[in-house]
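seq:
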Amino acid sequence: MKRIALYLCLVALLGCKKKQVPRTIGLALDVGGRGDQSFNDGALRGLEIMAAGLRYTASGYEPLAEADYRKLLPADLRGSPFPHLGIPPPLVLSGKAQEDYEPNLQLLVDQGAELIVAVGFMMEPAARAVSARNPAARFLLIDSPLLDASGKPTTAPNVRAVVFREHEGSFLAGALAGKLTRGKVGFVGGMQLPLIRKFETGYRAGVRQVNPAAEVLVAYTGSFDDEKKGIEMGQDLYARGCDIVFHGAGLDGLGVIKAAEHAGKLVIGVDSDQSPVAPGNVLTSMVKHVDVAVYQAIEDVLQKRFSGGDVALGLKEGGLALAPIGPMISPAEGKAALAEVERLRAEIVAGRLEVPATLEQLAKFAAARP
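struct:
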């Protein structure tokens, strides 16, 4: 009788597992984690705030009032229709090392997530492996194409890979810095990787476009999760005479912002609008709309129109933007600088101005004159 009872219990459990309805959307963060107020928080904004209409707190999720929801959107999205999608509380996992990524993605598959979001180019190997093992599951990979065994870009029907033309947005940040500097600006990157070099390259080109005489100093922290290194690099650049520093360094960038506060200088944030971190020092931020990429993928899943393949977002597609200029710049000075930035944005969108994406291309870049 005991064996029969045990058998019936197992049948019941297996039957429930087969009938299990996918729970919600799953998202795996990279080393920067929640609270970087930049790249990872941008992805979380698209999932939690925009798609679910929820605010994450220490005690769990709570509903977000419509007025608060609009305030939490980036400035350039507040007039756009991004209605909540009615998804239940999402599943969010953090990874602190490379070996965490694959187990985290597989766990989200096992939990029945309708879409698994892999945040960051460092997750590409894990996303490749887990998506191949689970062809029925759907994945969104942010900041990297899917690669084959030889490292060449490929595609899979169950993986949407979204990349950005960061050099275009960084070009506008550089043009703004070039218009406002007294002669020397800086850039702090995280790891010296092709993706981060795109930020540096675009920024350098933008400065050169409007102010060829300006000097650009560059430093790399070698990480994305060490705020102290960001402070050190930022302090060094300000001490060497930079009055504006742009960062592309993840969590390390919060350290650069703290260095700007300490020095009484200006800083340009990245990925999300970072003005709340230091309202008196953040000149603007180069916003990368990871939030929109996440939201749109979730919407496509719910509308049963999700497809794999590559997606590239730049200024033309609305994937990049500059956050509003801070109050430390006079209205007259800000208006003149923004007029030039807007002119350059229109030139890029129209295809009349090609922004270099690599340092090799930058070496050949000649500033186009109106």
